Fold this sequence. Notes:
This protein is of the alpha/beta class. It has helices at 2-14, 19-29, 33-38, 40-44, 47-51, 100-116, 137-151, 170-184, 204-222, 239-250, 273-282, 290-293, 325-333, 349-357, 365-368, 371-385, 391-415, 422-440; strands spanning 56-65, 71-82, 88-94, 122-128, 160-163, 231-235, 254-259, 263-266, 298-301, 313-316, 338-340, 361-363. Strand 7 and strand 8 form a beta hairpin.
Amino acid sequence: MNYIKNVMDSVIRKNSNEKEFLQAVKEVLFTLEPVFEQHPEYVRAGILERIVEPERIIIFRVPWIDDNGMVKVNRGFRVQFNGAIGPYKGGLRFHPSVNASIIKFLGFEQIFKNSLTGLPIGGGKGGSDFDPKGKSDTEVMRFCQSFMTELSKYIGADIDVPAGDIGVGAREIGYLFGWYKKLKNSYEGVLTGKGLEYGGSLARTEATGYGLIYFMDELLKSNGKSFRDAKVVISGSGNVAIYAHQKVTELGGKVIAMSDSDGYIHDPEGIDLDTVKLIKEKERKRIRECSSIINTTQFYKGCLNIWDIKCDVALPCATQNEINIETAKKLVKNGCFAVGEGANMPCSIEAIDYFIKNKVLFGPAKAANAGGVATSALEMAQNSMRYSWSFEEVDLKLKNIMVNIYNKASEAAKKYGHEGNMVVGANIAGFIKVAEAMLAQGIV
Ligand code: NDP
């Protein structure tokens, strides 16, 4: 469709050096063709031209002092991408690779993901090129305080509510929240992923990993398959990967490999989750250490080779662009029948097309990993009520949300002529709600 191609060309012209952002936009735009054929009013209202342009991007200096008294400077980002259906919502990523392109791709994806949850949250994302790895707790605290000194000018419980992402876990959220409270003299639910003692929600820690498996379980069941006895490979060993492992195991599957940025561990008997939790969550060490504790577990250097292992289900849960077309071919050749994106954009566009052509059951990130942000929205609801739900209540709501996302995506795919294609279905279902809200609110 010419209209979509013209919008894409203009996005390429304006953001030519932002490859991750362009990849994310391209992946969404061309799946929306059938929507624009049926809704000429979206074209007149410039919905697409507006949705690809962030409402606001804030870039700021973050100076802090290390333990040797040396001044260090990092760059901070917050993109407030689209606020049509609620306050901006999306995590903060602290990783040396962070730049404007990565934050914009994540913020763009977040618009549709948040819409799919059915909850009133707009799309945003932020972070810094700061690397928490190898820093002391006091260095991390000083960095977080400096970061929040600037960020606090732009966020608030009804404006923009950040959360965690890569490199931002319970420790970082605690420091960020404490400093916001001190600066503003206000106790508000301005961040999610908080500790249970100060306004956090039960099941938030588990939510993205559990949600991924609830979604994939629904997809598998609808196609006559299940996790029972399935051999599962999960990349990463952070928040998403760990709780995906826990839920896969509960459903009778066996996780045979996990990784971090150094390499991967393989154990045909099944990776022992308690050991991974001890090494990665508690001791903040490298995954290779697991092989010195469990003797059936082998460590291999180089994290991408994890996809050489024969498996039934592949769950990329580390970072963007882990699976390219060559990796996709390997997985299909080895008999992998389902791929669920726990990470954001872990598969290239060519890899996704290959999976779909080869009838691999594919759960795209926007739908499959929406459980984290959905539970963050439940944390916001509990903060507003000044009340908290039990683990079981939150977990049940999370499960219902994931099943609803599956149903919405699958119905949209069918309605617009792409039955069974979760990528098209998730993009369309997420887009239409935001487009309708933008239409109703006029040109803003
Ligand atoms: P964590 O920081 O807890 O864990 C990230 C894991 O991925 C670590 O094992 C890390 O290894 C590995 N990793 C990170 N970057 C790279 C890289 N460049 N190459 C290889 N491995 C890497 O993050 P999360 O688990 O929270 O997030 C993982 C993914 O899930 C991200 O894409 C994130 O955007 C997405 N996501 C997270 C949500 C959440 O609620 N946490 C919600 C929705 C999506 P190492 O320890 O060596 O750094």
